[in-house]
Amino acid sequence: MATVRAHRGIHSVQSMCAGLGVGRASFYRMHQPRPAAVIRPLHPRALSGGERQEVMAVLNSERFWDQAPGEVYATLLDEGNYLCSERTMYRILAANEQVRERRDQLRHPAYQAPELLASRPNEVWSWDITKLLGPAKWTYFYLYVILDIFSRYVVGWMLAYRESAELAKKLIEQTVERHSIAPGTLTVHADRGAAMTAKAVAFLLAGLGVTKTHSRPHVSNDNPYSESQFKTMKYRPEFPERFGCYQDAHRFCGEFFPWYNHGHHHSGLGYLTPYEVHYGLAEKRREQRAAVLKEAFAKNPQRFVRGLPQPALLPTTAWINKPKAIPQTESLEAINSSTVGAEQKNGFRICPITNDQPSGKGPG
Length: 364
What we know:
The protein is an alpha/beta fold. The protein has 13 helices and 7 strands. About 35% of the residues lie in helices and about 10% in strands.
């Protein structure tokens, strides 16, 4: 702006503003005197300063400090006393920055993200319920699924007409019994659905010695393994838009879950099947693959520019909300304290389920 002002007599304001990328209106606006602030005169019918202080004293008195101006106005009228209108009370409160919700408001607690680690099968299970569309609008079948987050093996499933805590309780008990889970060795994780947080389920898990954990409210990625499994099921080519009846849906699930456990090569497991990882067959399968790759390399080594290929690594851990890496600036004592009690790393809460059909058994 100073450049435009200094060369105003030589060049036009329009050309200089265009060259400097400055709006011409902005230049003129900056050189116009700003109008003085308009002081609004006090209305002749307005309350005096003393009257306004009297109203404030009444509103902030112990008798009325937790009541709305409308309630104060009506109470004073019933007592034969008129100070001012209700609207004037609000204006006076606004001038003193007291127009706000004066009651205590609900504060949502800050939920800690569950941090669960599984380093072996049957250490952490995750379960959820999804709806399958029925034959008509607003009709559903409810699919309960529990899977092991380390092996992705579906340890139990059930199809029901409704979401029920009693059904969940029955299925949990069957699943834990069928897989011979010892007390104190298993953590079960789920979201905060009605069946998951029911007292009947919580008491059952406590009696079985199973620790339960829950996702944070309205956070879907706190239960990623169950959500991923549901997506795998619903993206199958044979998954229909709707199921014709309960038997139709049950037949589909009866075919899908054996394939998922025994035939599905899971990308998160180094393209091994959940069954192989769950029952300790993964290392043997990886050795077989390594032998095949070694033989292929021996026949045509020129095709492998990076040397002898190796099969994908076996999974060693599975996390739900893996903690952030500890900064290197922290002391050794802080690092050691965060790793103490590794066997007690999964101390939370939840509930699971299972179907009435026998599950796959490991090698005898």
